[in-house]
Amino acid sequence: MNEPIPLARPELGPREEELLLEVVRSGSLSLGPELEQFERDFGAWLGGGYAVAVSSGTAALHLGVRALGWGQGDEVITSPFSFVATANSILYEGATPVFCDIDPVTFNIDPAAAAAAVTEATAGLLPVHIFGYPADLPALAAIADQRGLGILEDAAQALGAVDRMGRRIGTAGNITIFAFYANKQMTTGEGGALVTPDREIAERVRSERNQGRAPDMGQVEHDRLGFNYRLSDLQAAIGIAQVERIGELLNTRDNVAALYRERLTQLGAEPAGEEDEDDLVLPCENSGDERRSWFVFVVQLPAGTDRDAVISKLAEKGIASKAYLPCIHLLPPYQERFGFRGGEFPIAERVADRSLALPFFTSMSESQVDRVCTALAEALGNRA
Ligand SMILES: Cc1ncc(COP(=O)(O)O)c(C=O)c1O
User: Which of 38, 115, 132, 337 could bridge 236 with an S-S bond, Cβ 3.0-4.6 Å?
Assistant: First the structure.
């Protein structure tokens, strides 16, 4: 068998090793200079705002929900088509996630559906830039402005994406979170960041990630409820090296995605928005000034395809793939708690049923992309 092709693989090199080793030798493993430098470098690369590094994207979401004051009795409108952490973060503070259906082309929340979901209890919006494609921020901001709602952007998958106003995601003036797990565009192993234009929010989040302790306080002084959501300096060191070459990482990922698009088109795949039911469908292309940041390469299988059989056939050839991702409202904890049964969000459910994530990583070679595309066409009976 050919060498296995994993779903994702981090891109780490000598610079990551060098900076990591420096931290190991320094003996200063937490709340040291690397953490501060990583936050400065990341914020500067993003192009605005205060960046607070934390232990995961989930931790960043949780602190973002707290910063916006969402809690008991509040409804927060979000997407059912996201990773479970998005909605979980709303539950952590006792608020209620209110799902609304998604756009059939971008897979991000449909602003009209979001507007229709607003009630007296709505406190905010939690849009997700799913699969790295920017959500329609101007339309969501218009809904939020009408009612004075807060916005928390989940950009865990969208580092480097650009919205329709030409702004890099994370710089539109909302609290935005990023995630640095090892499958992301850049990684710290585990890690995340919250970015905000508001200095007071940044200070509060810095304190809450560190057990409710302001930077000038001693180790057992605490002036608010906090958590241990710290990112270690070992992780921050890897992050510094990754930020140094983030432009290159993102460009290379663009190239891998372009290769996939070209090969799958040759095999009969159709562009999003122009497909028939029995087509293999590509991820949507950039519209106007919007730019996707490539996190995963997810195709829609022809309707009625036995997806598990496709996954098995690819696996037989050493190729990883995954049904990605399931709708949050149909996961057992959400079904049990809120009584969802299916059919509530038909577009999200249809997309979730047909989605397949193919191997996608920065160092993926042309021949690996070819192997995946050929195997996929074969698994589909060459009917893509
Ligand atoms: C959309 C989304 N939100 C939040 C998270 C949570 O990030 P983490 O795994 O770093 O906690 C992820 C992780 O993949 C994600 O995809």
Answer: 38
